[in-house]
Amino acid sequence: MAGLMAGFGHYTHAVVRGIPASLAKEALRSSQSEVNLTKAQKEHEAYVEVLRTRLGLEVVELPADESLPDCVFVEDAAVVCGDTALITRPGAESRRRETEVMKGALKDLSLNIVEMTDENATLDGGDVLFTGREFFVGLSKRTNQRGAEILADAFKDYAVSTVPVLDGLHLKSFCSMGGPGLIVIGSSEPAQKALKIMQQMSDHRYDKLTVPDDLAANCIYMNLPNKGHVLLHCTPDEFPESAKVFEKLKDHMLIPVSNMEKVKVDGALTCCSVLINKKGNI
Hints:
Structural class: alpha/beta
CATH architecture: 5-stranded Propeller
Number of domains: 1
Strand order of the largest sheet: 2-1-15
Largest sheet: 3 strands, mixed
Binding site for substrate: 28, 70, 75-76, 95, 142, 265
Protein name: Dimethylarginine dimethylaminohydrolase 1
Number of strands: 15
Family: Belongs to the DDAH family.
Keywords: Hydrolase
CATH superfamily: L-arginine/glycine Amidinotransferase, Chain A
Shape: globular
Strand content: 15-25%
Helix content: 10-25%
InterPro entries: DDAH-like
CATH topology: L-arginine/glycine Amidinotransferase, Chain A
Mean pLDDT: 95
Order of helices and strands: EHHEEEHEEEHEEEHEEEHEE
């Protein structure tokens, strides 16, 4: 079994995409909340600003496409690990064309492109948790077994295990990595069941950080030169109890990032960027 990937959490580039006005009315959602488009756009600008200015990543900004209301959620269109980018086949048919611009951007970053062309396969990047040692893939409304098999084929160096997602949209709707060997997990019964399955399937013993709110378990971990461990997580305004839990991570630079509007259309923090580690300068 592979040990921890060298440079886990180290990123140099982020691919993001603008928010189309169509997001407010037409983006897919599990609740009927009203989205304030101006607030959503401000929130997204602040998120991109953190990546670019606070963390010093090279940010590739793709233009919004009004015919693709969900296109800001770039994570679902590609899974990048090392020098390989798997262009996915999103589970929602209305989102399939989102991969076209993403593929072009990742090609321009000189990544090895693998495309999921099998019409029986579906995979959203939001269902893919890479721990630095292995992949867990959520089998959800959006991702199926065939999609998980193609991912395993694209990233042969790592074990791939599947986890049923019975509640919530994606696997990462209730978990994410908080550091090397640390899984941040929601406290709901479905989240805890999924964690148990991941623990049973893995040869590695992961530490866990349990937060009261499932959605707050979605955060972004990075390990950056001159900054060390960095965690982008929910704000106290959104989830006060969960925000307190993150304060236990004394070795991390903690950056609360607001996600109040995008969460109304099932968007979490990881959804809005594809992170890449380019070893040499492009």
